Amino acid sequence: MLTLTLALRNLLHAGLRTWLNVVALSFSFVAIIFLQGFYDGLNEQVERATVAALYGGGQYWHSSYDPYDPLTLDDAHGVIPAPLDSLIAHRQATPILIRPATIYPQGRFRSVLLKGIDPDQTVLSIPSALLKDRSHGIPAIIGSRMAHSTGLQKGDMVTVQWRDVHGTFDARDVVIAEVFRSTVQDIDNEQIWIPLDELRRFTRTPDEATIVVLGQRVAPPGSVGGWDFRDLSFLLRDLHTLVRMKSVGASILYLLLLFLAMLAIFDTQVLSIWRRRKEMGTLMALGMTRGGVIRLFTTEGALHSILAALVAAMYGIPLMAFVANTGFALPNAADTMGFAIGEKLFPVYSPSLVVGTTVLVCLVTTIVSFLPTRRIAHLKPTDALRGKLS
Fold first, then answer.
1. Are residues 13 and 153 in the same domain?
2. 104, 133, 245, 351: which could join 159 in a potential S-S bond, CB 3.0 to 4.6 Å?
Protein backbone atom coordinates (compact mmCIF):
# COMPACT_ATOMS: atom_id res chain seq x y z
CA MET A 1 0.00 0.00 0.00
CA LEU A 2 2.89 2.33 0.85
CA THR A 3 4.49 1.59 -2.51
CA LEU A 4 1.23 2.39 -4.32
CA THR A 5 0.73 5.65 -2.43
CA LEU A 6 4.31 6.74 -3.02
CA ALA A 7 4.12 5.80 -6.72
CA LEU A 8 0.91 7.78 -7.19
CA ARG A 9 2.40 10.81 -5.43
CA ASN A 10 5.48 10.68 -7.65
CA LEU A 11 3.36 10.47 -10.78
CA LEU A 12 1.22 13.44 -9.86
CA HIS A 13 4.37 15.36 -8.93
CA ALA A 14 5.75 14.81 -12.44
CA GLY A 15 2.96 17.05 -13.76
CA LEU A 16 2.76 17.60 -17.50
CA ARG A 17 5.07 14.69 -18.37
CA THR A 18 2.70 12.24 -16.68
CA TRP A 19 -0.44 13.63 -18.27
CA LEU A 20 1.07 13.64 -21.75
CA ASN A 21 1.79 9.93 -21.39
CA VAL A 22 -1.65 9.27 -19.92
CA VAL A 23 -3.48 11.09 -22.74
CA ALA A 24 -1.39 9.34 -25.42
CA LEU A 25 -2.08 5.95 -23.84
CA SER A 26 -5.80 6.74 -23.52
CA PHE A 27 -5.94 7.21 -27.30
CA SER A 28 -4.70 3.63 -27.65
CA PHE A 29 -7.48 2.40 -25.35
CA VAL A 30 -10.20 4.20 -27.28
CA ALA A 31 -8.84 3.41 -30.75
CA ILE A 32 -8.47 -0.33 -30.10
CA ILE A 33 -11.92 -0.69 -28.55
CA PHE A 34 -13.52 1.58 -31.14
CA LEU A 35 -12.10 -0.24 -34.17
CA GLN A 36 -12.66 -3.73 -32.79
CA GLY A 37 -16.25 -2.78 -31.94
CA PHE A 38 -16.60 -1.69 -35.56
CA TYR A 39 -15.63 -5.15 -36.82
CA ASP A 40 -17.72 -6.95 -34.19
CA GLY A 41 -20.73 -4.85 -35.24
CA LEU A 42 -20.05 -5.59 -38.89
CA ASN A 43 -19.91 -9.32 -38.23
CA GLU A 44 -23.04 -9.34 -36.08
CA GLN A 45 -25.09 -7.13 -38.39
CA VAL A 46 -24.21 -9.04 -41.55
CA GLU A 47 -24.69 -12.42 -39.88
CA ARG A 48 -28.10 -11.49 -38.48
CA ALA A 49 -29.38 -10.18 -41.83
CA THR A 50 -28.02 -13.13 -43.82
CA VAL A 51 -29.45 -15.72 -41.44
CA ALA A 52 -32.88 -14.07 -41.50
CA ALA A 53 -33.03 -13.75 -45.30
CA LEU A 54 -31.17 -16.79 -46.59
CA TYR A 55 -29.76 -19.35 -44.16
CA GLY A 56 -32.42 -19.71 -41.46
CA GLY A 57 -31.38 -22.43 -39.02
CA GLY A 58 -29.36 -24.26 -41.64
CA GLN A 59 -29.97 -25.75 -45.08
CA TYR A 60 -30.30 -29.18 -46.63
CA TRP A 61 -28.69 -29.24 -50.07
CA HIS A 62 -29.38 -31.75 -52.77
CA SER A 63 -26.22 -33.83 -53.08
CA SER A 64 -25.53 -32.46 -56.59
CA TYR A 65 -25.90 -28.83 -55.61
CA ASP A 66 -22.81 -26.62 -55.63
CA PRO A 67 -23.54 -22.87 -55.33
CA TYR A 68 -20.12 -22.08 -56.83
CA ASP A 69 -20.68 -24.23 -59.93
CA PRO A 70 -23.66 -23.16 -62.03
CA LEU A 71 -23.22 -26.20 -64.26
CA THR A 72 -24.55 -28.39 -61.43
CA LEU A 73 -27.93 -26.64 -61.30
CA ASP A 74 -29.53 -28.66 -64.08
CA ASP A 75 -29.14 -31.82 -62.00
CA ALA A 76 -29.33 -30.29 -58.50
CA HIS A 77 -32.92 -31.15 -57.65
CA GLY A 78 -34.79 -34.06 -56.19
CA VAL A 79 -37.95 -35.19 -54.44
CA ILE A 80 -38.04 -33.89 -50.87
CA PRO A 81 -37.55 -36.73 -48.36
CA ALA A 82 -40.28 -37.48 -45.82
CA PRO A 83 -38.47 -36.03 -42.73
CA LEU A 84 -38.01 -32.69 -44.48
CA ASP A 85 -41.47 -32.81 -46.04
CA SER A 86 -42.94 -33.14 -42.54
CA LEU A 87 -41.10 -30.00 -41.39
CA ILE A 88 -42.35 -28.13 -44.46
CA ALA A 89 -45.93 -29.19 -43.74
CA HIS A 90 -45.61 -27.73 -40.22
CA ARG A 91 -44.13 -24.44 -41.56
CA GLN A 92 -40.80 -25.21 -39.91
CA ALA A 93 -38.89 -25.33 -43.19
CA THR A 94 -39.30 -24.05 -46.71
CA PRO A 95 -38.13 -25.58 -50.01
CA ILE A 96 -36.45 -23.57 -52.77
CA LEU A 97 -36.06 -24.78 -56.36
CA ILE A 98 -33.24 -23.15 -58.32
CA ARG A 99 -32.94 -23.26 -62.11
CA PRO A 100 -30.64 -21.38 -64.51
CA ALA A 101 -32.57 -19.14 -66.86
CA THR A 102 -32.30 -16.25 -69.29
CA ILE A 103 -34.36 -13.06 -69.26
CA TYR A 104 -34.83 -10.55 -72.06
CA PRO A 105 -35.32 -7.09 -70.52
CA GLN A 106 -35.61 -4.21 -72.99
CA GLY A 107 -34.39 -6.26 -75.95
CA ARG A 108 -31.28 -7.57 -74.18
CA PHE A 109 -30.59 -11.00 -72.73
CA ARG A 110 -29.21 -11.79 -69.30
CA SER A 111 -28.39 -14.98 -67.43
CA VAL A 112 -30.13 -15.25 -64.06
CA LEU A 113 -31.10 -17.73 -61.41
CA LEU A 114 -34.81 -18.49 -61.42
CA LYS A 115 -35.86 -19.40 -57.88
CA GLY A 116 -39.15 -20.87 -56.80
CA ILE A 117 -40.36 -20.26 -53.26
CA ASP A 118 -43.61 -20.91 -51.41
CA PRO A 119 -45.56 -17.62 -51.19
CA ASP A 120 -46.90 -18.68 -47.76
CA GLN A 121 -43.51 -19.41 -46.18
CA THR A 122 -42.47 -17.56 -43.03
CA VAL A 123 -39.05 -19.13 -42.48
CA LEU A 124 -37.13 -16.46 -44.40
CA SER A 125 -37.56 -12.70 -44.51
CA ILE A 126 -37.90 -12.75 -48.31
CA PRO A 127 -41.23 -11.00 -49.10
CA SER A 128 -42.65 -14.07 -50.83
CA ALA A 129 -46.22 -13.12 -49.87
CA LEU A 130 -46.09 -10.67 -52.80
CA LEU A 131 -46.27 -13.71 -55.11
CA LYS A 132 -49.81 -14.64 -54.07
CA ASP A 133 -51.61 -12.34 -56.49
CA ARG A 134 -51.73 -14.06 -59.90
CA SER A 135 -54.53 -12.03 -61.41
CA HIS A 136 -52.16 -10.29 -63.85
CA GLY A 137 -50.16 -13.36 -64.85
CA ILE A 138 -47.22 -15.17 -63.33
CA PRO A 139 -45.92 -12.89 -60.55
CA ALA A 140 -42.22 -12.37 -59.89
CA ILE A 141 -40.26 -10.30 -57.40
CA ILE A 142 -36.74 -8.94 -57.78
CA GLY A 143 -34.37 -7.01 -55.57
CA SER A 144 -33.53 -3.35 -55.98
CA ARG A 145 -30.03 -4.14 -57.31
CA MET A 146 -31.47 -6.44 -59.94
CA ALA A 147 -34.03 -3.79 -60.87
CA HIS A 148 -31.30 -1.16 -61.20
CA SER A 149 -29.07 -3.30 -63.41
CA THR A 150 -31.87 -4.50 -65.71
CA GLY A 151 -34.09 -1.41 -65.78
CA LEU A 152 -37.11 -3.44 -64.65
CA GLN A 153 -39.75 -1.80 -62.46
CA LYS A 154 -42.91 -2.88 -60.70
CA GLY A 155 -45.60 -3.80 -63.21
CA ASP A 156 -43.14 -4.52 -66.06
CA MET A 157 -43.43 -7.74 -68.03
CA VAL A 158 -40.31 -9.66 -68.98
CA THR A 159 -39.74 -12.91 -70.87
CA VAL A 160 -37.98 -15.72 -68.99
CA GLN A 161 -36.50 -18.74 -70.76
CA TRP A 162 -35.33 -22.00 -69.16
CA ARG A 163 -34.88 -25.69 -69.83
CA ASP A 164 -36.99 -28.38 -68.19
CA VAL A 165 -35.65 -31.69 -66.84
CA HIS A 166 -35.75 -33.18 -70.36
CA GLY A 167 -33.60 -30.39 -71.79
CA THR A 168 -36.49 -28.78 -73.65
CA PHE A 169 -36.41 -25.00 -73.85
CA ASP A 170 -39.52 -23.16 -72.71
CA ALA A 171 -40.38 -19.53 -72.01
CA ARG A 172 -43.02 -17.47 -70.26
CA ASP A 173 -43.74 -13.84 -69.58
CA VAL A 174 -43.68 -12.90 -65.91
CA VAL A 175 -44.95 -9.72 -64.30
CA ILE A 176 -42.76 -7.90 -61.78
CA ALA A 177 -45.11 -7.82 -58.80
CA GLU A 178 -42.72 -5.86 -56.61
CA VAL A 179 -39.17 -4.62 -56.27
CA PHE A 180 -37.98 -5.29 -52.73
CA ARG A 181 -35.03 -3.85 -50.85
CA SER A 182 -32.68 -6.07 -48.89
CA THR A 183 -29.20 -5.68 -47.50
CA VAL A 184 -28.47 -9.32 -48.45
CA GLN A 185 -27.10 -9.38 -51.97
CA ASP A 186 -27.34 -13.18 -52.23
CA ILE A 187 -31.12 -12.98 -52.61
CA ASP A 188 -30.96 -10.06 -55.02
CA ASN A 189 -28.18 -10.03 -57.61
CA GLU A 190 -29.10 -11.80 -60.86
CA GLN A 191 -32.13 -13.52 -59.30
CA ILE A 192 -35.83 -13.68 -60.00
CA TRP A 193 -38.24 -15.21 -57.49
CA ILE A 194 -41.51 -16.81 -58.63
CA PRO A 195 -44.06 -19.11 -56.95
CA LEU A 196 -42.63 -22.57 -56.29
CA ASP A 197 -45.56 -24.45 -57.78
CA GLU A 198 -45.28 -22.48 -61.04
CA LEU A 199 -41.56 -23.24 -61.40
CA ARG A 200 -42.17 -26.90 -60.64
CA ARG A 201 -44.85 -27.02 -63.31
CA PHE A 202 -42.67 -25.27 -65.90
CA THR A 203 -39.63 -27.46 -65.31
CA ARG A 204 -41.59 -30.70 -64.75
CA THR A 205 -40.16 -31.27 -61.31
CA PRO A 206 -43.21 -31.96 -59.11
CA ASP A 207 -42.53 -32.09 -55.35
CA GLU A 208 -38.83 -31.38 -55.95
CA ALA A 209 -36.44 -28.78 -54.61
CA THR A 210 -32.79 -27.81 -54.71
CA ILE A 211 -32.42 -26.76 -51.08
CA VAL A 212 -34.60 -26.89 -47.98
CA VAL A 213 -34.12 -24.09 -45.43
CA LEU A 214 -34.92 -24.84 -41.78
CA GLY A 215 -36.39 -22.36 -39.34
CA GLN A 216 -33.92 -20.66 -37.02
CA ARG A 217 -34.88 -22.69 -33.95
CA VAL A 218 -35.68 -25.98 -35.70
CA ALA A 219 -33.51 -28.99 -34.97
CA PRO A 220 -32.34 -30.82 -38.11
CA PRO A 221 -33.88 -34.31 -38.45
CA GLY A 222 -30.45 -35.87 -38.92
CA SER A 223 -29.02 -37.70 -41.91
CA VAL A 224 -31.25 -37.66 -44.99
CA GLY A 225 -30.32 -39.81 -47.96
CA GLY A 226 -29.29 -37.80 -51.03
CA TRP A 227 -29.29 -34.52 -49.09
CA ASP A 228 -26.43 -32.85 -47.21
CA PHE A 229 -27.05 -30.71 -44.15
CA ARG A 230 -25.14 -27.41 -43.97
CA ASP A 231 -25.21 -25.75 -40.57
CA LEU A 232 -24.63 -22.07 -39.89
CA SER A 233 -20.96 -22.56 -39.08
CA PHE A 234 -20.49 -23.90 -42.61
CA LEU A 235 -22.74 -21.37 -44.33
CA LEU A 236 -21.21 -18.38 -42.53
CA ARG A 237 -17.63 -19.59 -42.84
CA ASP A 238 -16.75 -17.23 -45.70
CA LEU A 239 -18.20 -14.26 -43.82
CA HIS A 240 -16.31 -15.07 -40.63
CA THR A 241 -13.09 -15.59 -42.57
CA LEU A 242 -13.47 -12.25 -44.33
CA VAL A 243 -14.19 -10.36 -41.10
CA ARG A 244 -11.30 -12.12 -39.39
CA MET A 245 -8.94 -11.11 -42.18
CA LYS A 246 -10.02 -7.49 -41.86
CA SER A 247 -9.57 -7.69 -38.09
CA VAL A 248 -6.04 -8.99 -38.57
CA GLY A 249 -5.32 -6.03 -40.84
CA ALA A 250 -6.64 -3.68 -38.18
CA SER A 251 -4.39 -5.32 -35.57
CA ILE A 252 -1.42 -3.74 -37.34
CA LEU A 253 -2.84 -0.36 -36.36
CA TYR A 254 -3.39 -1.62 -32.81
CA LEU A 255 0.26 -2.68 -32.57
CA LEU A 256 1.41 0.65 -33.96
CA LEU A 257 -0.63 2.60 -31.42
CA LEU A 258 0.55 0.37 -28.59
CA PHE A 259 4.16 0.64 -29.72
CA LEU A 260 4.05 4.45 -29.72
CA ALA A 261 2.39 4.56 -26.33
CA MET A 262 4.78 1.98 -24.84
CA LEU A 263 7.76 3.83 -26.29
CA ALA A 264 6.66 6.94 -24.44
CA ILE A 265 6.27 4.96 -21.20
CA PHE A 266 9.67 3.30 -21.66
CA ASP A 267 11.43 6.61 -22.32
CA THR A 268 9.72 8.15 -19.30
CA GLN A 269 10.91 5.30 -17.09
CA VAL A 270 14.49 5.55 -18.34
CA LEU A 271 14.52 9.31 -17.81
CA SER A 272 12.93 8.97 -14.40
CA ILE A 273 15.50 6.41 -13.24
CA TRP A 274 18.36 8.55 -14.50
CA ARG A 275 17.08 11.74 -12.86
CA ARG A 276 16.14 10.13 -9.56
CA ARG A 277 19.40 8.34 -8.79
CA LYS A 278 19.95 10.12 -5.49
CA GLU A 279 16.34 9.47 -4.46
CA MET A 280 16.86 5.74 -5.02
CA GLY A 281 20.05 5.83 -2.97
CA THR A 282 18.25 7.63 -0.15
CA LEU A 283 15.38 5.11 -0.16
CA MET A 284 17.80 2.20 -0.08
CA ALA A 285 19.84 3.87 2.69
CA LEU A 286 16.64 4.23 4.70
CA GLY A 287 16.01 0.51 4.46
CA MET A 288 14.08 -0.07 1.22
CA THR A 289 15.37 -3.11 -0.60
CA ARG A 290 16.40 -3.14 -4.25
CA GLY A 291 13.26 -5.19 -4.96
CA GLY A 292 11.17 -2.52 -3.26
CA VAL A 293 12.69 0.21 -5.44
CA ILE A 294 12.03 -1.89 -8.54
CA ARG A 295 8.41 -2.39 -7.46
CA LEU A 296 8.06 1.36 -6.87
CA PHE A 297 9.20 2.33 -10.37
CA THR A 298 7.26 -0.52 -11.99
CA THR A 299 4.12 0.54 -10.13
CA GLU A 300 4.61 4.13 -11.29
CA GLY A 301 4.76 2.95 -14.89
CA ALA A 302 1.76 0.65 -14.45
CA LEU A 303 -0.27 3.49 -12.93
CA HIS A 304 0.00 5.28 -16.28
CA SER A 305 -2.35 2.65 -17.74
CA ILE A 306 -4.81 2.97 -14.84
CA LEU A 307 -4.97 6.74 -15.21
CA ALA A 308 -5.18 6.35 -19.01
CA ALA A 309 -8.14 3.98 -18.62
CA LEU A 310 -9.93 6.55 -16.44
CA VAL A 311 -9.21 9.36 -18.90
CA ALA A 312 -10.28 7.16 -21.84
CA ALA A 313 -13.55 6.38 -20.05
CA MET A 314 -14.27 10.09 -19.60
CA TYR A 315 -14.42 10.82 -23.33
CA GLY A 316 -14.54 7.30 -24.84
CA ILE A 317 -17.76 6.06 -23.21
CA PRO A 318 -19.92 9.01 -24.40
CA LEU A 319 -18.35 8.85 -27.86
CA MET A 320 -18.84 5.11 -28.32
CA ALA A 321 -22.35 5.19 -26.82
CA PHE A 322 -23.31 7.88 -29.32
CA VAL A 323 -21.86 5.96 -32.27
CA ALA A 324 -23.44 2.67 -31.13
CA ASN A 325 -26.88 4.34 -31.02
CA THR A 326 -26.69 6.41 -34.21
CA GLY A 327 -24.40 4.19 -36.30
CA PHE A 328 -22.13 5.07 -39.19
CA ALA A 329 -23.84 6.36 -42.31
CA LEU A 330 -22.29 4.42 -45.19
CA PRO A 331 -21.80 5.68 -48.76
CA ASN A 332 -23.64 4.05 -51.64
CA ALA A 333 -20.41 2.36 -52.73
CA ALA A 334 -20.55 0.19 -49.60
CA ASP A 335 -23.37 -1.77 -51.23
CA THR A 336 -20.86 -3.25 -53.67
CA MET A 337 -18.52 -4.58 -50.98
CA GLY A 338 -20.33 -7.90 -50.67
CA PHE A 339 -21.53 -7.30 -47.09
CA ALA A 340 -25.17 -7.25 -46.01
CA ILE A 341 -24.65 -4.01 -44.12
CA GLY A 342 -27.40 -1.63 -45.16
CA GLU A 343 -27.30 2.14 -45.00
CA LYS A 344 -25.77 2.26 -41.51
CA LEU A 345 -23.29 0.19 -39.56
CA PHE A 346 -23.77 -0.09 -35.81
CA PRO A 347 -20.64 -0.99 -33.80
CA VAL A 348 -20.94 -3.43 -30.89
CA TYR A 349 -18.90 -2.84 -27.74
CA SER A 350 -19.19 -5.93 -25.58
CA PRO A 351 -18.02 -6.02 -21.92
CA SER A 352 -15.49 -8.72 -22.84
CA LEU A 353 -13.97 -6.41 -25.48
CA VAL A 354 -13.63 -3.49 -23.04
CA VAL A 355 -12.29 -5.61 -20.16
CA GLY A 356 -9.98 -7.63 -22.41
CA THR A 357 -8.48 -4.52 -24.00
CA THR A 358 -7.99 -2.84 -20.62
CA VAL A 359 -6.26 -5.90 -19.15
CA LEU A 360 -4.04 -6.27 -22.23
CA VAL A 361 -2.90 -2.63 -22.23
CA CYS A 362 -2.32 -2.63 -18.47
CA LEU A 363 -0.29 -5.84 -18.69
CA VAL A 364 1.87 -4.57 -21.56
CA THR A 365 2.39 -1.25 -19.79
CA THR A 366 3.51 -3.03 -16.62
CA ILE A 367 6.00 -5.17 -18.54
CA VAL A 368 7.41 -2.17 -20.40
CA SER A 369 7.68 -0.25 -17.11
CA PHE A 370 9.61 -3.10 -15.52
CA LEU A 371 12.24 -3.50 -18.25
CA PRO A 372 14.28 -0.32 -17.52
CA THR A 373 14.24 -1.02 -13.78
CA ARG A 374 16.37 -4.16 -14.08
CA ARG A 375 19.51 -2.03 -13.72
CA ILE A 376 18.41 -1.16 -10.19
CA ALA A 377 18.96 -4.79 -9.12
CA HIS A 378 22.75 -4.25 -9.23
CA LEU A 379 22.69 -0.72 -7.80
CA LYS A 380 24.68 0.07 -4.66
CA PRO A 381 23.22 2.72 -2.30
CA THR A 382 26.56 4.54 -2.11
CA ASP A 383 26.79 4.75 -5.90
CA ALA A 384 23.23 6.03 -6.13
CA LEU A 385 23.88 8.73 -3.54
CA ARG A 386 26.82 9.89 -5.67
CA GLY A 387 24.51 9.99 -8.75
CA LYS A 388 25.85 6.81 -10.36
CA LEU A 389 23.79 3.96 -11.81
CA SER A 390 26.65 1.45 -12.20
1. no
2. 104
